[in-house]
Write a structure and sequence with these properties.
heterodimer, A: seven-stranded parallel β-sheet, four-stranded antiparallel β-sheet, 15 helices, 22 strands, globular, B: mainly beta, eight-stranded antiparallel beta barrel
């Protein structure tokens, strides 16, 4: 019996250590910070420029830092301040329960929320797979977004500031594929929000791979579209565990990116199964989704990975991909051009379109010590960030909302969309050489059937896909599918699937989209 | 007759050919990807922190607790192995009901020393009681935190179980040095074994791993038979402590 008690006590101690609680302290006001705030010293000139472009006030209350006097008082009660957010007037602390009461009685404390419990999970990393033909994938990922068209016009992301929020940037400083970023001083700043100590090039190579997909160069081939962009690198993630406090680190990093004048935030991170339920994927629940929306409201184009759970039990997107103002990026199969199996499905729980757009989900990247082919929406995302940087360079006066809309419109499937591909893969030609697509098919209604008849018989040597989706009267897609076009009539549908005249059948084939609704 | 059949056969053949072409043209829809949203957005009910969950478990434990005078136990060599299936029905954010069915094999090795008087005073090379049992348990699980995500969390299970011995063995190995031989004696169908055992169980878990303890509320041996055969009531240590993994 004695041994049993010892073992149970030991186990209890371990369990209670894991259960150490953290709290979110929301404050009522900004106190004396209001009096001392000077936006011109607080913000980088690029942040001022961006705010002016967006028409945002320079002294919005949520931009004011948290009052020092408040922080000092919280610090005297708490065991540790883990993070803080000026946008949400929020301080996250680790504190013992008996001192929590003391904190709750401070006059400037609005409310206290217990931080959801700590969980353990590996971060959203890609499945490693080694393909021999690195050069082939490198060429493809650049070509599929028509990077060559941008580069011909000298659109390489020059003057555009991109913040990369990731787990670690191990190997970045020694990578030949990224050496130009150091020699041309394009990495403007880097910060570790996890340890709050001096930034070190460690914590895993995921961030290195992401950065290489925006600006890397492998041999003579660009891996990303924006080799001349400027970068802010932020470490916001633990490498091997996923406590909830990472979301405050992400928020801090987004605020830092805002202050430093970032135009784009790239975040190849996401939280799902072990932290939330699908019901929480509504863009309003998680702190990280609310922070991403806030960053967008400050004029930053936030580009995030949809998630790699498409073939797992969870299936759906993670957060912050659920935030309504972020561009969520799905992954495509480079061999078939439709959704790659692991790319997470949309929509959000409240049926908003996600992913917004897609990019190749198999990419050549720089890791900590070599170049390899990796899978993941983590690496599709920076391809789009590089693309967005080129668009921002082309249209410097475009607001975040305009960029968001135009990026969606540049998708190769637009105006067709579905919850696997969004609007498809962004195409540079949309911005540089827009062409009016000619009809490639027509609807042929015969009795109770709707036939989709191609204008030209498909060449059996080529693989071409036909996409169709059925949208109900609430604007929600009830079903969607991708078919391989093998004959003139590719699709035969019973009319009854369109329940009433407000239902829509939307079909896309070879750059042309048409919608059919019942007339009877 | 033949003259009238021929055009009909030709017509049937042509019709068949037409239908084959039609069907094959409709068949040309090779579906690369298909998704029906309404069905997919129904919330899952099966998962680690969902309404229902089930799986396999494997546990290994050691005998602890007080021994009967005259029946000394070799504690390190007396153990149990449990393999079974478990289910979970979530009752609310903190509580769940956890039933289990398992095969539980227990070994009690009797120390061979001067204090041993039961079932006899002979010093064997090895003496062991073996009880493979069918085992059923039911627990109430308390999760220390109301996790939102789909994972086990940290939990305490409190419950009860029954063991139904499938058979019993009393194995003795005698080292017959004079003949340079080893004699194995196995007694089956021991008359002094209870047909059912009831246990109180407790388990403290973190994620898939847990430590568990079972306390046997009933005796293994029949008290009246013990008195009749050994002139005293006898029993084996009632507590098992071990580690379990849920798969």
């Amino acid at each position: 019996m004695k041994q049993l008690i010892i073992i149970l006590t030991f186990w209890g101690l371990i369990a209670s250590a894991y259960g150490q609680d953290t709290y979110r302290i929301y404050l009522k006001d900004k106190g004396d910070a209001t009096l001392r705030f000077d936006p011109y010293t607080f913000f980088d000139p690029k942040a001022i420029e961006r705010r002016e472009c967006e028409g945002i006030a320079l002294t919005a209350t949520d931009d004011l830092p948290i009052a020092d006097t408040y922080l000092r008082q919280i610090e005297s009660c708490a065991e540790q301040i883990i993070g803080k957010s000026r946008w949400f007037n929020l301080v996250v602390v680790r504190i013992s329960e008996h001192r929590l009461e003391e904190l709750a009685h401070l006059p400037f404390v609005e409310r206290i929320e217990k931080n959801p419990s700590t969980t353990m999970q590996l971060c959203m990393k890609s499945n490693e797979s080694v393909h021999p033909d690195k050069a082939r994938f490198a060429e493809y990922q650049f070509r599929r977004l028509q990077g060559g068209l941008f580069h011909e016009k000298n659109l390489t992301g020059k003057g555009v500031r991109v913040a990369v929020l990731d787990v670690g940037f191990e190997g970045t400083e020694n990578a030949p594929e990224l050496a130009h970023l150091f020699s041309r001083k394009q990495i403007l700043d880097q910060k570790d929000f996890v340890t709050k100590r001096t930034f070190e090039w460690k914590g895993g190579w995921h961030g290195t791979a992401v950065l290489s997909c925006i600006a890397g160069k492998y041999q003579e081939q660009y891996l990303g579209l924006a080799p001349d962009a400027e970068f802010l690198l932020a470490r916001t993630e633990y490498e091997k565990r996923e406590p909830f406090v990472e979301e405050i680190f992400w928020t801090e990093a987004a605020e830092w990116a805002d202050q430093k004048g970032a135009h784009i935030i790239n975040s190849s991170l996401g939280y799902g199964d072990t932290r939330y339920t699908y019901k929480d994927m509504d863009g309003k629940t998680s702190l990280v989704a609310r922070s991403a929306n806030k960053a967008a409201s400050k004029g930053i184009l936030v580009i995030v990975a949809q998630g790699n759970e498409g073939s797992d039990a969870w299936q759906f997107l993670g957060t912050p991909a659920d935030a309504d103002s972020v561009l969520s990026i799905g992954g495509t199969n480079p061999f078939t051009d439709h959704k790659i199996d692991f790319s997470s499905w949309g929509p959000t729980y409240d049926h908003r379109l996600k992913p917004n757009i897609s990019a190749p989900g198999v990419t050549t990247v720089r890791t900590d010590n070599n170049v390899s082919v990796q899978n993941g929406t983590s690496f599709a995302t920076p391809l789009v960030s590089g693309f967005a940087a080129c668009v921002k360079q082309l249209r410097p006066q475009a607001t975040e909302r305009q960029l968001f809309t135009e990026m969606q419109k540049s998708g190769h499937l637009h105006p067709y969309f579905d919850y696997a591909h969004g609007y498809g893969i962004p195409q540079a030609s949309y911005f540089l050489n827009p062409v009016q697509r000619k009809p490639t098919f027509q609807f042929d209604v015969q009795g109770e059937q709707i036939l989709v008849r191609l204008n030209a018989k498909p060449n059996p040597d080529e693989t071409k896909n036909l996409y169709y989706a059925i949208e109900n009267d609430k604007g929600i897609l009830e079903q969607f599918s991708v078919l391989q076009a093998e004959s003139e009539i590719v699709l035969v549908l019973e009319k009854y699937v369109l329940v009433n005249s407000n239902y829509k059948l939307r079909v896309h084939y070879e750059g042309y989209t048409q919608t059919y609704s019942r007339q009877d | 007759m033949k003259a009238t059949l021929k055009p009909i056969l030709v017509k049937i053949s042509l019709l068949s050919l037409f239908l084959t072409v039609l069907v094959s043209s409709l068949d040309a829809q090779t579906v690369l990807l298909k998704r029906e949203t309404e069905r997919d957005t129904i919330e899952r009910k099966f998962g680690k922190n969902k309404k229902f969950y089930a799986g396999l478990f494997l546990g290994y434990g050691f005998v602890v607790g007080k021994e009967t005078p005259g029946l000394p136990i070799q504690y390190g060599n007396s153990s149990e192995l449990v393999v079974g299936i478990w289910g979970k029905r979530k009752l609310n954010s903190h509580f769940s009901f956890v039933p289990e069915l398992a095969f539980r094999a227990q070994w009690f090795r009797i120390a061979q020393n001067s204090s041993k008087t039961i079932p006899d005073t002979f010093q064997y090379e090895l003496e062991r009681y073996t009880f493979p049992t069918f085992n059923a348990n039911a627990y109430i699980r308390y999760n220390f935190k109301a996790h939102k995500g789909n994972h086990f969390g940290t939990y305490l299970d409190v419950g009860a179980g029954i063991n139904l011995p499938v058979w019993e063995r009393h194995r003795r190995v005698i080292d017959d040095k004079s003949n340079n031989n080893e004699v194995v004696v196995i007694r089956k169908n021991l008359q002094y074994i209870q047909p059912i055992q009831v246990t109180a169980n407790v388990r403290l878990g973190y994620r898939r791993w847990s430590v568990y303890g079972t306390y046997r509320l009933t005796d293994i041996f029949k008290q009246d038979k013990g008195k009749e055969i050994f002139n005293q009531t006898i029993d084996l240590p009632p507590v098992m402590v071990g580690v379990m993994v849920m798969i």
